[in-house]
Amino acid sequence: MSGAGRGIIDYSFVMRRSACRPLDVYLAAILAALACSGEQGSDATRRGAASPDTAIAARARGRAASRSEAVGPSYVGLQYDSLPGDFKFEGGSVIPMPANGPRTDYDFAHVSTPRGDMVWLDTIGAAVGRGLRARIVRGELTIPPLAPDERLFMASCDVGGHFDGRVVAIVVNEANTSRFTMVRQAWRVNLSSGRFDIIPVASIVCEEPGSG
């Protein structure tokens, strides 16, 4: 049987010999061929051969599981005045607003979370029970672990010679200076969407908070 006819029973084998063999012999040959074909199919099933539909479904389930595992819980929408016990506040800065800017107060909060170090964009509300102002997380940025010679600056950098309070930057901690020009990575937050976008570092200079 040729490769092109794989899976098709060749009944011509029976017909070519019909002149010299009884009918029951030919029927036996057909039944034997069918049985052989069925055994091959069941053997393939036992080895785990999947049908095209099954294989596609399995790949789809695998992709869905990967996406589900890659996406952790989001803290956007969290309202807090103090952090839960498994969170740690590492630092923060109020974002200065220009006179014609939004009337909402915003700040950055550097927080150690169960998902790693993050910078949150918060809106700041009215004072609550203990006099602390309630905050709502509007955006989040997962930051890489800082090297021993790195520092995180929030709302304390110039871009192209002009102050930009929406910038978060990782800089090299240089000695005996209050202006840091060796910037390794930087982001600018969109206050409306809460999204942090990576920006070029070439024209960024960050200053020690309170030194200006």
Q: What's the layout of helices and strands?
A:
Elements: H1 12-15, H2 23-46, H3 52-70, E1 79-80, E2 88-94, E3 105-113, E4 116-127, E5 133-142, E6 150-154, E7 157-159, E8 162-164, E9 167-172, E10 179-180, E11 183-189, E12 196-198, E13 204-207
Antiparallel strand pairs: 1-5, 2-3, 3-4, 4-5, 6-9, 7-8, 7-13, 9-11, 10-13, 11-12
What is the terminal separation in angstroms? Answer: 88 Å
Number of domains: 2
Mean of residue pLDDT?
Answer: 74
Radius of gyration: 34 Å
Strands of the biggest beta sheet: in what spatial order? 1-5-4-3-2
How many helical stretches?
Answer: 3
Q: What characterizes the major β-sheet?
A: 5 strands, antiparallel
Write structural notes for this entry:
The protein has helices spanning 12-15, 23-46, 52-70; strands at 79-80, 88-94, 105-113, 116-127, 133-142, 150-154, 157-159, 162-164, 167-172, 179-180, 183-189, 196-198, 204-207. The chain has 212 residues and is of the alpha+beta class. The chain folds into 2 domains: 9-70, no CATH class; 79-207, no CATH class. A 5-stranded antiparallel β-sheet has the order 1-5-4-3-2, with no helix packed on it. The model is unreliable at 1-71 (pLDDT under 50).
